[in-house]
Predict the 3D structure of the following.
Amino acid sequence: MRQRILAAIGVILLTAAAPSVAADTDAQKLATVQKMIEAWNTRNWQQVYELFAEDGVLESMMLPEPTVGREAISKRIGALAKDISRIELRIRHMGVADGVVFIERVDDFVYRGKHGAVPVVGVVEVEQGRVKAWREYYDREQMIEAMGLKEDFDATRRRQ
């Protein structure tokens, strides 16, 4: 019995001392977000999708529910991307606080032939080189107007 207890303690100690998957450094998190920005700017939608974690979350904070999972994110972005002929995420400020990447930017785009620009703040959580969560804060009405739309394409998802 004593040998079993000592063996169990040994296993516990070895497990605790075993190297775990290292967390991304702040520099690695910034590099992942910079890759995402470059993918948007070049309209490389496949890379945008691949940079999200399989269970990643994309959330426009003014909508009631986030888009969850790489496949759902791909469908959501793809529905908009087909009408974007040019986009540039112009970064004003970007940095890491408490392990989270914050981006102040202006999204400058041409959507269905209409030029628009909208200020946005993005809050991005990165794990293992993938975007785990991307939360977007912007004026929804300003974005809809800048896109040249008469009504919100997400009217059924709008927060009350």
Summary: The helical segments are 2-17, 26-41, 45-51, 70-81, 140-146.
